[in-house]
Amino acid sequence: MTQEFHREDRYIVIKHKDLGNVPVAYREHLVRPLFALQAHLPVRECVIVESDWPEYETVWQMIEARVTGVTPAGVERSIQAKRVSNCPADRLAQCRGGDVRAVVDERTVQDYAIEHAGFLANAADQVLADYQAYTLAQMLADEGG
Fold this sequence. Notes:
Helix content: 55-70%
Number of strands: 0
Number of domains: 1
Low-confidence stretches: 79-85, 98-105
Number of helices: 7
Mean pLDDT: 74
Distance between the termini: 62 Å
């Protein structure tokens, strides 16, 4: 029996780039409470895939597959390709039934998306740290510190 899957609106996400469009006076009233809230909220690591990205629907399919236990064919291919790419070189032919060239040449869009998401997550962490340091310095300067 599979569990039914429903997409949920579970997070509030504010893109750093979008904060630049918020009027400075309003931004000040927004950022201070957010910093105060951070001490009371759990730290979460997330991957954000915006709806205009080509990987968006594929990522939703992957999440649905995890929840329901039913993996769509395209997602299964990506998972299989990942498993094969982790095979030791001396066992590569066994991993793919002897088709070594297919394994070496095969790199799916999902593989690139996963790699890209990792780069984005690392960059987002650095941007967040830099923005927090900048905001803290700005607050100290405003207070005469």
